[in-house]
Amino acid sequence: MREFEATGKTVIPGNLLHKLQAVLRSYSVTEADTFQAMRTCWKENQYLLCPHTAVAAFYHMAQESTSSSLRVCVATAAAAKFPEAVEKAGLLPQPTPELQALDSMPTRYQDMKQGQDSGHAQDQNTNSALQVDIEHL
User: Fold this and answer.
1) What are the angstrom distances between the C-alpha of 97 and each of 80, 94, 100, 103, 104?
2) Residues 65, 70, 66: CA angle, nearest 5 degrees
3) pTM (predicted TM-score)
């Protein structure tokens, strides 16, 4: 990890890399593909995918007829968290009561300096939007 933090890159040892390559795949999906997967899943299952999960679902749909491999697609978030993406896919957002309740709840955050451990930051309570110091990102 120190190598990665210092240089922005790292080398995975050959034996570990081969094991990872045996079980992991990467795949590029366009925004249009993502929205298509969201629409397809809704049409076939009446299940609204978040855009992140739709990327995995698109890969699954693309491989379905050419592979007998078993795959698992884990939904990573609620689609209700991404109403703009749902609308861009031509679908109707379905906000949940739990997410709607968040709008009226107080926000808690910690001001932190780069490299600071979260145990040493001072807690703040506010009703305003989440505050992030992006100067050090």
Assistant:
1) 10, 10, 5, 10, 12
2) 20
3) 0.62
